[in-house]
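Listing S7. Sequence submitted for prediction.
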Amino acid sequence: MTPSEDLIHVCQDGPRDAPALLLIHGTASSVRSWEPMVPLLTGSHRVVRLDLLGHGRSAKPADGGYAVPDQARRVGATLDRLGVEHAVVVGHSSGGAVATSLAEERPDLVTALALINTGPGLAAFIAPEPAAAGPAQWPPTDEELRRFASTAVSRPGYRIPDELLDEVREMTLHTFRATMLATRSYLEDEALPERLALLGKPLLVLFGEDDRRWRSSSAADYRVVPGARVELLPGLGHSPLLEDPARTAAALLAFTE
């Protein structure tokens, strides 16, 4: 962890001498979003999770650097402090943009990438209905949180845990807006497939076929990356790590092996 306003909350599970698997959450989420998957991954990996600046138990400074490259540099520095020299990096949603930026900044550190429901570019974004676009006040009401979260899953009957909604409520309005704008800016500069095609890293792309935030057909855009493995997950939406952790973990483990 860092000392000061850039305090980053880190969780580690599994054998310290096993290959490192870094899990990066998306906007308005935290390390908690990976909890259903962690026990499925620790048999063969040292699983590292962290809360990006502005999220979860990490610091939420009003003047913090929330740009995607700033978040990536902070993640790299955290892994350095943990003594992690190489890692397979997994990003969910906008966490995939941070994972990509980390590979750009630190190709020595990132051995491979896995992106879960990470839109390749802004053209793939599905504009939400006004009621689900985001909270109109801060802190948001329970009803606003539920509406905002409604597009995060598609599996019938699945209900996002209250503790994950609490993570949104505990953000500040500034960090919520700044992180969303940061992802948009990063994708406007250059789409992810074009960035990744230059890196030469093994790539897995998992996409819930019923995603209501990014067009799942856009996963095919990643095929411009040489050797990329693209898998659609039928019956799942934007958050396969929550909706079906076993299926998501199985795909990740097959890729890392």
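Caption to Listing S7: primary sequence and predicted structure tokens for the chain studied. The chain has nine helices and seven strands. The CA atoms of residues 30 and 56 lie 5 Å apart.
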